[in-house]
Amino acid sequence: MTLRAAALVVLLLVAGFPSGPAASTTLLVTEATRRGAYVFQAAGCLGCHTDVKNKGSPLAGGRALKTPFGTFHAPNITPDREFGIGTWTEEDLTRALRQGVAPNGQSYYPAFPYTSFAGMTDADIADLWAYLRIVEPVAEPSREHLLAFPFNLRTLTGIWRALYFAPGEFDAGPTPENAAGEAESWRRGAYLVRVLGHCGECHTPRGVLGAVDNGLMLGGNPAGPDGGPVPNITPQPGSGIGDWSREDIVTYLQMGMDPAGDFAGGAMAEVVENTTSRLTPDDRQAIALYLSTLPPVERKIVRQPR
Ligand code: HEC
Ligand code: HEC
């Protein structure tokens, strides 16, 4: 059975159709949703779509995401048919992630990091879909965004997409020489950092219209989420994390402790808790390898006092 078929079976099961006699089907279903849960964690969907502070139900709508354009509220993405995405198909999810376009044809704001998620593999989207079908439906309306004119005009997001977004398969590029013996791990690291983990959404600086400046990839962002500074994580000694060993990076991703013994604060504390601490050791190694081979960026970001 293909992944797509497995996802379909989940759909049928959720919808209450008879599951059929094969015990192995159940096993496959479990596998797809289990893998989907992993993709879901690695991509940090929960953090944005849940209002933890106000004890909101999981995925029923997120906390306020403050940006220079106004405040976004990630919508309800539970399978509720009225308030969530219960009437969506897998194709709808694929189009939202790959192209930033809603089922009604409108474009999404890039506050939904589809520009990173666009590179997700077919298998990961199918598994993610299987998982999103089995989360608890919550009948709560999404909150409106609070955006300043003209950013409140959704039609502008279509223009933004045309200017700054090039859909297409993710290509990590050629493996650099210093990762030659570990090409597979390096490619996995690239995918985890640039696609699923969308690390650049916070760690890469943005231009005036909010597009990330990939010439300074992961070179730090003086005005990250909620306006705070986000450090340079390229291997530049001094201004980046060039003085960290790969093991230092792995430890930080696993438990949030840096080589000086300080713990991650702010947005990164959440990333460690919801995402990087839950990855497999191999995936953390892959991220550390990838970060250590990035082109170094000389750019000092003044940190927030902890
Ligand atoms: C950085 C915060 C953030 C993360 C991470 C994030 N989202 Fe969202 N998402 C948003 C925002 C904000 C919107 C609303 C965009 C808009 O209104 O144009 C959104 C919209 C959506 C929508 C459209 C819902 C609708 O009703 O049209 C879907 C589906 C979705 N996200 C799924 C996901 C999935 C799956 C993940 C993980 C792979 C994810 N999101 C991760 C912020 C986020
Ligand atoms: C939601 C925004 C956000 C995302 C997404 C994010 N980070 Fe961070 N990251 C931060 C912030 C803010 C800090 C600074 C934390 C502090 O001051 O304690 C940070 C710190 C770090 C540090 C420590 C750097 C130093 O000099 O102390 C590393 C390493 C790091 N992040 C790696 C990653 C990786 C890898 C990813 C993707 C898997 C990622 N981050 C995703 C916001 C983010």
Write the H/E string, N to C.
HHHEEHHHEHHHHHH
- Secondary structure: number of strands: 3
User: Mean pLDDT, as a whole number?
Assistant: 89
Q: What ligands are attached or bound here?
A: heme C
Rounded to the nearest angstrom, the distance between the terminal CA atoms is 51 Å
User: How much helix, percentage-wise, in residues?
Assistant: 40-55%
Quickly count the domains: 2
Which features does this protein show?
306 residues; mainly alpha; 2 domains; 3-stranded antiparallel sheet; 12 helices; 3 strands; globular; binds heme C
Describe the structure.
This protein has 306 residues and is mainly alpha-helical. The chain folds into two domains: 3-148; 177-292. Helix content is 40%, strand content 3%. The chain has twelve helices and three strands. Strands 1-2-3 form a three-stranded antiparallel beta sheet, with no helix packed on it. Helix 1 packs across helix 2 and helix 2 crosses helix 6. The radius of gyration is 20 Å and the shape is globular. The N and C termini lie far apart (51 Å). Residues 1-25 have low confidence and may be disordered. One heme C (HEC) binds next to helix 9, helix 10 and helix 11.
